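ok here's HEPN AbiJ-N-terminal domain-containing protein, seq below lol
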Amino acid sequence: MAKVSRRGGFSDRNGIKTENNIIQLTSFDKRTRIQLQNMLSLLYQKVYRQDTYWGNDEIQDFFRFVQGTVYSEPVDTRVKIDDDKIWAIINHTIQNDDYDDVLTLVEAIIQYWDDYMRKVWGYNYYNYYDNPYKDYSLFQTVNRYLKREYVGYRFIDGQLTPISDDVEIETINQALESKYEAVYIHLSKANSLLADRDTPDYENSIKESISAVEALCEILTGINGKEATLGRMLKKLEDSGVEIHAGLKSAFNTLYGYTSDANGIRHAGDIGGPASTFEEAKYMLVSCSAFINYLIGVTAD
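and the structure came out like this:
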């Protein structure tokens, strides 16, 4: 018989039979796997607006994506794929496979559905010309599930990233949403290098984070080339009337010096010391994002 398992319910809240509250990074408990399976089932209904007849062209396109792209199995476009078969494969992965396979599957499906909803739902979901999402994006919806289940990953810029702190996530997202394309390109790459679960590149993630700050400073000051040192650009900002808190400037110059000298990260491929860690790369991504948000704020008209 099934047993009650409700996070935040009476038994959990009063410490009688507590649910897991330890951040899950490399393994997921049974409850979490079930909740992720239920989440995909509910979102499936929402994305296709309850019209989930397995023979529909849009549903078949989704099934072909799962079978052919996510699982790299042969697809015969002359034959319709049965929904029971696809969901049996998905649910088997959610319930039994390694944590990274589960995350790869969830990430791929949510990315596919987000793209589908942008195209089909239009302004009822995503507005390219104004505030991007009308309400919550699918990524935000999934993040709420991940937070509730103490999964140590969140969607940032459309990718699952090993960051679970709400303030850090908001800081990075705010910087990614700036109007400066060069800033977005560097930060997005920094996040991608950090989020790669198979071959993370922490050194180059740090390089891209600091490059995002440099790119913003170049835009704000007009200085570029060999003259575009961080110190020189910050001084020009101050000379033009921008007030930068002395403590913040000192702290960031220290961080900048760390990336320039400590491990040779500024010259990726010529590492001069021990390889950088995830914690260092995450710290730099958050810190650079916060400094970008600060500079944009103090230079706003």
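fwiw Strands lie at 154-156, 159-161. kinda neat tbh
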